[in-house]
Amino acid sequence: IARRRFWLALGVWASVALVAFLALWPSAWRNPAGTITLLVDNALIAMRTNHPTSGVFLGDGPGDRSPLYYLVSLPFHLTPLGSFGLLAGLYLTLRGRHRIQSAHLAPLLLSLWAFLLLFLIPVSLTGRRGDRYILPLYPPLCLMTAVALEQLTWRRNPGSTPATLGRASAYDAVPVARIIGGRTARMPLGFEKVHTFLGRVRARAEWVLALALAVQTISVLALHPYYFDYFNPLIGGGSVAMRYINIGWGEGLDQAAAYLNEQPDATQKTVAAWYSWQFAPFFKGKTVDLSSIEVALRADYVVFYINQLQRGFPSAELLEYFRARQPLHTAWLNGVPYVHIYPGPIVSTTPPSSIQHPVDATLGGAVHLMGYDLVNGEVHADEPLFITLYWQVLATIPGDYNVYVRLTDDSGNVFGQVDRLPLGGLLRTDKWQPGMYIRDDYRLRLRPGAPPDVYYLEVAMYSFTTGETFGLARNIGRVEVTPARTFASVEELAIERPLRTELAPGVELLGYRLGAAKLGPGERLPITLYWHASGRPATDYAVVFEARSVGGRDGGAWTETLGSELYPTHKWRRGEVLVSMHQLQMPPYARTDTYMLTVRLLDTASGQTIGHEILGKLEFVERPRYFETPQVQYPVGANLDDVAQLIGYDLPQHSARAGETFPLTLYWRALAETRTSYTVFVHVVGPDGVIRGQWDSIPGAGTLPTTGWIKGEVITDRYMVPMASDAPPWEYTILVGMYDPRTGERLKVKDTTRDALALGTVRVE
Questions:
Q1: Are strands 270-273 and 286-289 parallel, antiparallel or unpaired?
Q2: Can you spell out the DSSP letters for 591-656?
Q3: pLDDT (0 to 100) of residue 285
Q4: Please, which residues bridge with residue 325 across strands?
Q5: What span, in angstroms and rounded, lies between the C-alpha atoms of 228 and 216?
């Protein structure tokens, strides 16, 4: 009889399953055989092949290819009551049937566990894993939760009746200790009141359960219509789930489309999206599949979805570039950023409609820096600065160049820099074509401890392999940085030479870094000092450096502001860690010797110096000087603003090949001493006015700065000038001059308006 009942029950359930299968799947009505075949084929594909990428798993690791994936993902999809029911069901099963009020429930629990294990183990060993593949586990889990709640929450004493509900006497014979494995025992006198209270709580358990169900139901309904983004709050919810498992089934794409539909001319715009077939029905304009870099660079908008980002589609290089950009809009669901929208196009044949800060600088005669946008409204010292550069390609660029974007103070000290290939290497500069407009985004962070100040933007293109500058644009804009919201830590500073010296009340010197140990006349010594506001300084301080040899020789003294104009020391906050950077220019007359460099603080109000600390040794080396006028191949005799005279030059050859260098020697006479270190430029210009060869350098390949020149001294300055690889076979004019690298201002030829000297010509064969 039992066997017949079993087979009858099995047949009934199989019939119900078949009817449900046919009723809920319309495609099975027309082609049942084909539908089942498709289902079987799909299952075989899932068993035998992996996903193209594995996504995330426990923050890293093998992703969804790990056989433990479902053991991690399953708890995130349970509710608090479901989590409790799973654990309680395990407890009831392990404790045995004598702990269960109804004997027939023991086989039920065992069968539920058997189903869970028999389903979970094979599906965990298949090639593909996704949360949808374990949907059949949730009905038995819900049933197990119901059994556990009935057993552990609604149990009553034998013989209790509805009339006794709500009275502690109906429950006090079954202590709570018995529910968790203890034995019924007479309570000590001191615990009777506690037991009575717990009994009354259990008597009202139905109300507690009803309240829990109501709260849980409301928390789920509040997510309407995005129920897939519910994650178990007991283990952190979605913000934790996104770091441990793959999430996202398309929810949120409709919100992204709604945002874009509100933008001007939305019907004329093109959006590139990885899940284009899910995004397209909601968007009014054109949707294309984000299948290549070309599509991402030319679309009006690019939409990234969270599951796509977790799995790394379509390429790591593309995602890395966009991660450094500031999204135009982000669609959040239940505290999780599901969709990011980025503006475009990045590469276009039409100029940008607007630029916040126009620049108008040409680099290397081939690319025009039109201007930049600052995405941040207010920039804090501890937050990234998002900068968008706009390039116009004027001519073919002869090489593959990097770009750096810097923030410098008014002394040229670099407080922040980002350095990489334009567009993250997605489109190399040697592939840029005339007529292109490039939108290039950068994410720049100031160094830890950078003080609030007004900083200046500097942009350059250069060769990463040779260091040769293709073009440079200094002081293209000002960025005012406000105080950090979070103080930098001492560990972030990476102090090279740590100290712990309090030079003044509330001002502690943590350490320092010397940029060089051996210097010549006029050369600059970079010094970085690390400070800690141990208290709130009561006044403003300056920092005083002195260099003195053991024999008493004076190697120079320098006084510089500590802090910045926007953030002097009296504004420093207790516990704050800050960095100050200084450029000590060596005097031209110092004698060869070893000097000790010391630092003190100067109270700017009283004029008194405070504290004393030795920073280290400096070796100063004089250089030979020449004052006789040399024999030159081509005399010039031009005066540049009474700073230097170009006596003449040597040009051994008047021809060169494209892509090669030619020698040029300049002879200068110092007309006066100067505190400005000027840069010499050599430009080779064709008939079309385009620079086809260029070299900018401090004289003497950086070893003979103008700050070290003595009046009347003669300097021999040699260059190997490179010609562009695409230079046409023309006759080129050589232009030479000097400029201040901090401002870009050129020295004028005295009694003229010219700022460059036209020397000889060189022909490209």
A1: parallel
A2: PSEEEEEEEEEEETTT--EEEEEEEEEEEE-----B-SPPP-SEEEEEEETTTEEEEEEE-S-SEE
A3: 96
A4: none
A5: 15
Q: 3-state DSSP call for residue 564?
A: coil
The fraction of the chain above a pLDDT of 70, given in percent, is: 90
So what's the pLDDT on residue 459?
95
Counting Cα atoms < 13 Å in the Cβ hemisphere of 605 gives 7
Name the DSSP class of 754.
Answer: -
Distance CA 69, CA 53 (A): 14
Q: For residue 161, what pLDDT band results from cuts at 50, 70 and 90? A: very low
* Spatial CA neighbour of 457 closest among 406, 417, 383, 384: 406
DSSP state of 544: E
Q: What's residue 198's pLDDT?
A: 53
Residue at 631: amino acid letter: Q
Among candidate residues 443, 440, 442, the one with its CA nearest the CA of residue 428: 440
Tell me if 125 sits within 8 A of 50, measured CB to CB. Answer: no
Tell me which residue has tokens 């030619």: 662
**Which tokens belong to 21?**
């299968």
Q: Using only C-alpha atoms, what is the Rg of the chain?
A: 38
Cross-strand pairs, 682: 695, 736
The answer to whether the beta carbons of residues 318 and 305 sit under 8 Å apart is: no
C-alpha distances out from residue 327 to 301, 308, 640, 735, Å: 10, 16, 49, 45
End-to-end CA distance of the chain: 106
Nearest to 97 by CA among 84, 86, 108, 87: 108
Ranges of beta strands (E only) in 349-410 are 357-363, 367-374, 379-380, 385-393, 402-408
- Distance from C-alpha of 470 to C-alpha of 459, rounded to nearest angstrom: 11
pLDDT in tens, 178-222: 433 444 445 455 556 655 655 665 566 677 788 888 999 999 999
Query: pTM to 2 decimals?
Result: 0.74
Judge whether 370 and 477 are in contact, CB under 8 Å: no
What per-residue confidence (pLDDT) applies to 300?
Answer: 95
